[in-house]
């Protein structure tokens, strides 16, 4: 299975609804590594996902809906070169 890397920007009502924790749980379930964090604009969550293409695709599909309480308006996905730099999936501080 081919490994891929995706850089996501998820916009809408995605902060204050447990989006990051929920994404971490979904990513771990599918064996995806990387990170997720809030952006300081108050309406964007950013994430980098690495893993098998089908697993990353499942996390991206989940991100289009998010957890209960979220209202996702847009998910921008930038495909990047796979680096294999992550050992796990983490929640990073807001930037």
Offer a few descriptive terms.
five-stranded mixed β-sheet, Acylphosphatase, Alpha-Beta Plaits, acylphosphatase activity, about 100 residues, hydrolase, about 25% helix, 5 strands, alpha+beta
Q: What is the structure about, briefly put?
A:
The protein is α+β, with helices and mostly antiparallel strands and 95 residues long. It contains two helices and five strands.
Rg estimate, integer Å: 12 Å
Structural class from helices and strands?
alpha+beta
Query: What is the helix content?
Result: 10-25%
Runs in which pLDDT lies below 50 for 5 or more consecutive residues are: none
What is the H/E string? EHEEHEE
Report the top-level CATH class.
Alpha Beta
Strand order of the largest sheet: 4-1-3-2-5
**Count of DSSP-assigned helices:** 2
Tell how many strands the DSSP assignment holds.
5
Strand count, sense and closure of the main sheet?
5 strands, mixed
Tell me what the CATH architecture is.
Answer: 2-Layer Sandwich
Q: State the CATH topology.
A: Alpha-Beta Plaits
* Mean pLDDT rating: 97
What proportion of the residues form beta strands (DSSP E)?
35-45%
Q: In total, how many domains does the architecture comprise?
A: 1
User: What is the straight-line distance between the termini?
Assistant: 33 Å
Shape: globular
Pfam family, one: Acylphosphatase
Keywords: Hydrolase
Catalytic activity: an acyl phosphate + H2O = a carboxylate + phosphate + H(+)
Family: Belongs to the acylphosphatase family.
How would you sum up this structure, described in words?
This protein has helices at residues 19-30, 53-63; strands at residues 3-13, 33-38, 44-52, 71-80, 89-91. It has a 5-stranded mixed sheet, with helices on one face. The protein has 95 residues and is an alpha+beta fold. 29% of the residues are buried. The radius of gyration is 12 Å and the shape is globular. The chain has one domain: Alpha-Beta Plaits (2-Layer Sandwich).
């Amino acid at each position: 299975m081919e490994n891929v890397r995706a850089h996501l920007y998820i916009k809408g009502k995605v902060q204050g609804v447990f989006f990051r924790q929920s994404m971490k749980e979904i990513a771990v379930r599918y064996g995806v590594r990387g990170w997720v964090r809030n952006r300081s604009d108050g309406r964007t969550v950013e994430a980098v996902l690495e893993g098998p293409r089908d697993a990353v695709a499942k996390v991206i599909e989940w991100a289009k809906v998010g957890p209960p309480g979220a209202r996702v308006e847009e998910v921008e996905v930038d495909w990047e070169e796979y680096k294999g730099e992550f050992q796990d999936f983490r929640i990073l501080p807001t930037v």
